[in-house]
């Protein structure tokens, strides 16, 4: 049944994306840029409905009150394709730094260009990266929300964290709050797999880290608060969804957390 639902969902997901892009393109490209963002946001909401209806997966967002007004950096955990689009409906005017090759994709690239997404050549150095930073700073001055995944790439739930220092440089140079986000969508929409699993999970938006800290101090604080919240949610999510198969990384991390809790209890 899970395999059948997964096939149905994946088919509906990509058909929904392609049909909406084609049908709504004439409207999208004549609308003002920010108003046109309602089309991708509504697509994200429709994907949530498909997940709920076909697969039986739902989620709750906690901490929306922690989102500041104006420009800030959103720093979510990155486990799945789900978290690349899922929070769009709750953000005012988000922007991504993305691989320039993505802008060459028909329709998707045109959509991204209209929203002034920031392309980057990942092998670039020097003046090119300085230009990317200047463009990013300009978008932030216009009150946009930069979405950056602190670990750079998708990581399995419970995997040992590998944060990239680039977010600390952005924090230092842009002088805006950073909002960490903990979640485990990778348990229900695993990376590199077509299976989708039913259940319920939480997205936890943490209090912002305000600008002004030393970059090293900020980096340590971000890792500490985000990993602590991720561990807490991993325990909660696994307990509340015992039917969901856990990847080896999650099983290992849960054993570590159980051992730590036992040792802490014994010391008390």
What are its keywords?
about 270 residues, alpha/beta, Glycerol-3-phosphate (1)-acyltransferase, seven-stranded mixed sheet, about 50% helix, globular
Protein described:
The structure is a single chain. With 268 residues, the protein is of the alpha/beta class. It has one domain (2-267): Glycerol-3-phosphate (1)-acyltransferase (3-Layer(aba) Sandwich). Helix content is 48%, strand content 13%. Strands 1-7-6-2-5-3-4 form a 7-stranded mixed beta sheet. Helix 4 (108-114) links the parallel strand 3 (94-99) and strand 4 (118-120). The termini are far apart.
The top-level CATH class is: Alpha Beta
Find the CATH topology.
Glycerol-3-phosphate (1)-acyltransferase
Count of extended strands: 7
Low-confidence stretches: none
Task: Report the span from N to C terminus.
Answer: 47 Å
Largest sheet: 7 strands, mixed
The share of residues in helices is 40-55%
Portion in beta strands:
5-15%
**Based on helices, strands and strand pairing, what is the structural class?**
alpha/beta
Q: On the 0-100 scale, what is the average pLDDT?
A: 92
User: Based on the structure given, which CATH architecture is correct?
Assistant: 3-Layer(aba) Sandwich
Shape: globular
Which strand order does the major sheet show? 1-7-6-2-5-3-4
Write the H/E string, N to C: HHHEEEHEHEHEEHH
Number of helices: 8
Q: What is the total domain count?
A: 1
Radius of gyration (CA) equals 19 Å
């Amino acid at each position: 049944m899970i395999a059948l639902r997964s096939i149905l969902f994946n088919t509906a997901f990509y058909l929904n994306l392609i049909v909406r892009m084609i049908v709504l393109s004439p409207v999208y490209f004549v609308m003002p840029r920010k108003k046109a963002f309602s089309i991708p946001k509504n697509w994200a909401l429709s994907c949530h409905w498909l997940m709920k209806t076909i697969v039986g997966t739902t989620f709750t967002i906690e901490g929306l009150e922690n989102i500041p007004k104006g420009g800030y950096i959103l720093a979510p955990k990155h486990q799945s394709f789900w978290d690349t689009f899922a929070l769009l409906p709750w953000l005012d005017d988000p922007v991504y730094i993305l691989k320039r090759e993505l802008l060459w994709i028909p329709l998707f690239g045109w959509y991204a260009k209209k929203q002034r997404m920031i392309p980057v050549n990942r092998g670039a150095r020097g003046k090119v990266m300085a230009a990317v930073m200047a463009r990013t700073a300009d978008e932030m001055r216009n009150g946009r929300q930069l979405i950056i995944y602190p670990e750079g790439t998708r990581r399995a739930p419970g995997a040992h964290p590998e944060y990239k220092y680039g977010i600390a440089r952005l924090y230092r140079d842009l002088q805006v709050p950073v909002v960490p986000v903990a979640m485990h969508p990778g348990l229900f929409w695993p990376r590199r797999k077509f299976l989708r699993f039913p259940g319920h999970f939480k997205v936890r938006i943490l209090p912002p880290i305000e600008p002004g800290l030393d970059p090293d101090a900020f980096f340590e604080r971000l890792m500490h608060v985000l990993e602590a919240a991720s561990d807490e949610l991993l325990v909660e999510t696994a307990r509340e969804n015992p039917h969901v198969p856990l990847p080896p990384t999650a099983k290992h991390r849960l054993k570590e957390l159980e051992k730590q809790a036992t040792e802490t209890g014994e010391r008390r």
